[in-house]
Amino acid sequence: MAQSGHAVVIGGGIGGLTAAVALHRRGLRVTVLERAPSLEPVGAAISLAPNSLRALDVIGLGDEIRDLAAWSGDGGLRTPSGRWLSRTSADAAAERFGGPLVLLHRATLIASLASRLPPGTIRTGAAATLADSGDADRPARVRTTDGVLEADLVVGADGIRSAVRHALFPGHPGAVYSGFTTWRVVIPVPGAEFASHETWGRGRIWGTHPLKDGRVYAYAAAVTPAGGHAPDERAELLSRFGDWHDPIPAVLAAARPEDVLRHDVHHITTPLPAHHHGRAALLGDAAHAMPPTLGQGGNQAIEDAIVLAHHCDDLPAYTAARLPRTTAVARRAVQVAHLNLMRSRAGIAVRNTAMATLSKAGPALFLRGFDGIADWRPPQGDTVCSEQTPAGNR
Q1: Count of Cβ atoms closer than 10 Å to residue 249 Cβ
Q2: Of 210 and 1, which is predicted with more confidence?
């Protein structure tokens, strides 16, 4: 396929690399600029639902990722004592959404995406700023330490504190604190045998899942003021979750303080007026950061990337396709955060009873939460992006 234009992707995370691969396959010469010294991702594991796996199918990666995954939907929701509120299975998920829910380490997905780009495409240690978003009559311009790059398309995939977003929409308020913090670990836990689960307590949640390489991925969240950090985050987790059901104590016993990652959660409450301006487009957290309570942040970034490549000649169409959907998914993630991080004892009792009752009557609440999300399918067609990418408007 002949090369026909230049795309500059600012940010080498999952969304940025997916966009780079998709745009490369559409015929563009691509440059990825990553500020960090390497592509090693900050974080632990990522859950991929059928919607993002179908998006990865577009770039020939879906089946490879499905084969790498260990967890495929078996498990459910529990109380801190260990009582099951709701259970589901891989077969139920696949039947409902046409495919499994899977889990893998972020580094694995990053490596798979990077391997599909030509040598020299990715530049690490490369800070970049959007100097000019361009328009129909002139290219966009990206300033780097090595000079200025001109581009037919700039992709802002630079995360929750996106400088590209600020350059395009300087009056937007940006992300706000979601009211809770998260911890994550990926470690070996010898002898641990368990079904994947998420456990909802009072203003706290915990999840434990196996990875294919034999390690365990665990995450936790708690309602807490912003900016808090403990001298020993493992000890902090032990104080908050040490008396919860198995295998949580075993995971905490196997973890070292340095294994624990802690991050406050922020999200965008005011949707952007558009996901593009001029020849620049935003995706992922830069466009619609959301709480992780649906596990859809990375999934939506992957969707964005595939749809952006499909509409690379028509950025208003990209906004039209993505803004309503990502706004709805983000709002649902906030609603779920209010539900699973509830602090009222009376409310929790009502919530748990309702969850158990509803699950006995039909598909588990866990699966219902993905209705309208996991059944998404990517746009069809395979066109070559032209050099004269229309600029569009706000």
Answers
A1: 14
A2: 210
Q: Find where tokens 């259970």 sit.
A: 87
Higher pLDDT, 91 or 283: 283
Q: What is the mean pLDDT of residues 186-211?
A: 93
Q: What is the 3-state composition of the chain as percent helix, strand, coil, each rounded to the nearest 5?
A: 35, 25, 40
**151 strand-pairing partners:** 140
CA distance 197 to 208: 6
What interhelical angle do 50-58 and 90-97 show, nearest 10?
60
pLDDT of residue 1: 31
Residues 60 and 70: their CA atoms lie apart, in Å, by 20
Give me 340's structure tokens: 């699973």
Q: What is the DSSP letter of 113?
A: H
Q: Strands, DSSP E only, in the chain?
A: 6-10, 29-34, 45-48, 75-78, 84-88, 102-105, 122-124, 128-132, 140-144, 147-151, 153-156, 175-188, 197-200, 204-210, 215-223, 261-268, 276-277, 280-282
- Band of residue 386 on the pLDDT scale cut at 50, 70, 90: low
227: phi then psi, degrees, rounded to nearest 5: 85, 5
144 near 154, Cβ under 8 Å? no
